[in-house]
Predict the 3D structure of the following.
Amino acid sequence: MLPAALYLWFTREDVRAVVALAEILALWLAVAMRNSVVAIKYAYLDKGDIEDQYDSSYEAPLRIGRRIFMAGWASPTEVDSSVLTEEMNEAQARSGCVLSGALVKCRPAASAKELEGMKPAWAGDVTAEGTQPPPAGYLQADILLSLITDKTLAAPFPGHRRAMMIGGFLLPFLPPLVRALGPGDVPAFGNTSASKIVCAFCVYAPGLYVALMAGYSQVAMWSYLRRGRAMALLDELCGEGGCSMERFSGEMGKGVGAGVEDSDFGNGKHIESPSNASRLKMRKQQTYVLKSANKVAIDLTDPTTVVSVLLLRRCLRQMGVRYNKRVDGFTIAFFATGVVYVFTLCVFFLRADTRITEDIGPLDHRLSTDLLLVAFALYTSAMLALLVLTASHCNEAPRFRACLQRAALNACAELVDIAAAGDDNEIGIDAAWRRASAKKALLQMADAQVGYNEEVVEPVTVLGNPATPIAVGATISAIATGMGLALQGFVSQQSEGWGYSEEDGLWRGPT
């Protein structure tokens, strides 16, 4: 129906009703296509399969469209927690890491009150599942990853971004409204060939896409922002002084023995694991409690912890890789539409040369058409700049590398202390020297590995390039250059007597 509407638009004199109908149909067609993704994905699942996959909640698939549209993340509800656990398992499989056996050592932060020490989760032996409990002061890496993602990646979509997203969906209804209120028999955006071409570009093809993406850009920025917060929280835990664990209140600290009920957890709260029953029992036995006044940090002086944090960090970055490709594809299409708008402006405001103006005579344009192009171009530039700036927070490898280098410096100081020690026990000194040297080498290798993987091989990209604040200028330089050329053409033509006619509003030369 949309091509038929376009054909009628170019062949009929009265195009106002056809334009409004076509734009409304295009909007609902886009919504129907998005919903068809859900139908195709779940067409071969019966009710029993859906109930098994979504914890006996048959209404859960109704929220699948929202979850797909929001780049795979949604509000931290019971069903979405299951989805988040699936993402964690897939990230571990893609990165080749198994975090269930990796241990992370935690210590009180320097500015915290004195703690009694983190006690083992069990007083003695193995669990009912035959799993050996972690030593005192240690936490399983997959549990820590779950805590971090629960507080960052699973954060709900803010209300103001949701409002802007809905506003983007309603934006295609604006041109029909403006045309309906236009003066006389001429639509507000003009009835010339140029106006029809511009409106076809701006409304029917990329314009409708940009209107939908006005909402999706909020989702993309929120996706980058949550990933940046997750990395920042992990780096904060690894840094000096640690992270205030009141955001993890009731989830880390002093352990509880097997068989203790939730009511015996002291002043903390038990958070259910979103996985199967055995995983839930394991999570319950490893639930910790900390007073909110205390602070803890990840102890990078422990070699096991260094390796575990590297694996955890790799899984955390892997959780956003596949959604980054989707968002990056959107930014490329978004950038291309901005280039189309600016190119059209440059064509409109060519030099006031007689031969050239004769060639572009059919492309007469009005002020409303030009303002529409300028508004879309400026919006595209602003959204791209915000996307790059937000995505740059995901590429903060120097922040974590500083923690590793600080730990390596401490290892060097330990070597100096060992060298300055007496020679009473040469065997013990030699063993301590080898341990300190190995720890220093491990920290230096971890520093090099993080720098290479996160800054060279797998950085978070926007428009196919690493997202850095410096890249903002390079990203929007093409649009800014085109806008400058169009402005130069506008000023040049205006100085030669061009202007918008008072009779029909067209951009005309001196008569």
Observations:
- The chain has a mean pLDDT of 65.
- The CA atoms of residues 351 and 489 lie 6 Å apart.
